[in-house]
Amino acid sequence: MAASFMSKLLLLAGALAGAQAFAPEGVPALCTSVLTRRADLRARPPQSRPSFPSALSQSRAATRRADPRAGPPRLSFPSTDLGSPSMQPLGLANAAVAVAWVGLVAFANAFSPGEFGSTADAGLVTTLIANPTSPMDAGLSPVFALIFNLFLPVPLMLAALLLPTSREQRVPALPFVGASLALGFFTLGPYLALRGAPQPLDADGKAPPFGFFDTRAFGVLVFALVCSIPVSAQVFQVNDWSSAVADFLQLLESSKLVSVSCADLSVLSVTLACLVREDSCRRDFGNPNALCAISLLLPAFAPAVYFLLRPRGPTSE
Fold first, then answer.
1. What is the DSSP letter of 111?
2. What is the crossing angle of helices 256-283 and 92-106, to 10°?
3. CA distances in angstroms from 71 to 53, 55, 67, 140, 199, listed in the order given
4. Cβ–Cβ contacts within 10 Å for residue 51, how many?
5. From residue 311, how far is each of 50, 161, 280, 307, 315 by CA, in Å?
6. What is the pLDDT of residues 282-301, one digit of tens each?
7. Residue 136 confidence (pLDDT) above 80
8. Which band of pLDDT confidence, cut at 50, 70 and 90, is reported for residue 104?
9. How many CA atoms lie within 13 A of 300 on its CB side?
10. pTM of the predicted model as reported, rounded to 2 decimal places
11. How far, in whole angstroms, is CA 152 from its chain's centroid?
């Protein structure tokens, strides 16, 4: 104990000696000031003694003055925005689209009749291109001509429903939707399998991209196009429907082009009906389930009527 006291005394003496070396006249005054201050603080009542809160205490006091119910300050971390379609998890609809795409690819490669690049299929395409408004006069099935010509308006309507709401998706929509004009669901399927929730038509107060698809002019154009296809396919000139259907069924059983085209158009039509339902919900127009059912019963034509009658988007005028 005596050694400890002596060591402290020596340390104090050394400190005073150092202070005296740098400021010889200030040591007695410093000691007198410290002793006077301690005596003054002891003489004051406890409630009048000054306090020296830390920076954290001052921050907490200021927070409580602003909001008495607020607790101590807490650390905040940036949160992940799950509202973006690219951040949302895939759902059952994406899985259903993936299954449909795999089934279509499997049917085209393993189960459809005929062969890829056959001479008969090449002759069908060449004759259809050479006779766009008179396929029956050229010896082609008017039923297949009708199906083949629908590959123009159906992908156009799909583009009109997908592109204006395609911002912030996992993959860009334009390459897949554009390629579907030639390859149908074979290229559209992968995009739909990865597609998140559609964006609002007036997101961030900006005009939607591809705004022409949301105009009245596009509705009139696609409706006129769909109505012209039965005329150009000479469907109304068929006198013997039993023979026309038999010829088409024979093509369906022997031609890979015809069978795959029919399967592809069927999947596209179901997809279009589902997207019509989605769009009608977004615009609060009609009965979405009824519109979907009618679009399935009258493929291409019912969706074209929907485009003609649907209300315009908030930024399309």
1. I
2. 170
3. 18, 16, 9, 81, 38
4. 5
5. 72, 14, 9, 9, 11
6. 999 999 999 999 999 999 99
7. yes
8. very high
9. 23
10. 0.71
11. 25
